[in-house]
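Support reply, case 0932

Customer input (verbatim):
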Amino acid sequence: MMGKIRTVLGDIEATELGFTYSHEHLWTFPPSIQKDRDLELSNYEASVSELGRFKKAGGNALVEATTLDYGRDASKMKRMSVETGVHVVAVSGFNKHIYFPAWVDALTIEEIKGKLVRDVTVGMDGTDSKAGFLKAGSWDQMIHPLEEKVTRAVARAHKETGAPIWLHTEAGTMGEEMLDILESEQVDLSKVGVGHSDRNADPYYHLQLAKRGAYVQFDGVSKVKYYPDSTRVELIKNMIDNGYVKQLLISADMGRQGYLQAYGGGPGFEYILKKFIPRLLDEGISKEDIHTIFVENPARWLGQFEG
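Our regenerated output:
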């Protein structure tokens, strides 16, 4: 039995979520250490227009993964959700250690946990919009001590609130090791999504994550700078063929101006709906499996809140 899903406009029934992109960005403002400002999405009209195109193409819900250390703005997400009619699920937590504010080092795990719990139960960024999931991240081929610290804080906030967890894995590495940390905090791994897993295009690795009960997220669809979508199709088939279709999440993580049509880039939020899903069907993946991946799985993963 699924619980409620916490959106920026309030809790909804899991059955109301509908077709979902499970990892995207609408409003970002990375700290100044990040010199690549293409990662900054701070044009309200462009972002809300892109979200409107997603809605028009058949989208119903978007999981917004912009963290505390990456310029999250709950008031902007709330307005976008109202304007477009798209359910927006926002996050509390952290990206990776290079972005962490100084207070992450200064505070204890329990104090950080308290901040995360407030975001989930009271509201984010001075609003009454609550976070619907929690995020922690790791670095490329290593976990920085501060990343372990916030991962433990996320685990404890999860246990207190029920909010599901999503993991940033740099270049698709350290997913198993991040799950180890959560497991040491007695987290049920069936409440956890391991993001960017397709960046590490290793079918064996994906099955190891799935065997532990976690959701495996492929969120690089369309990004041919890494490799063509043909590789992602094979990775998706690997998960389905091995019986893990119910643990697969798919999105495109289009957190750059250069990826979004309304910012003058492409291919935009329409791509999965208009191009990638027709390709999956053409390559022999069933409508039932596509419904499972884009409707049922996000609802099950996010639906952790009591009514």
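We compared this against your earlier run and they match. Two observations from our side: The CA atoms of residues 26 and 47 lie 6 Å apart. The chain has ten helices and eleven strands. Please reopen the case if you see a mismatch on your end.
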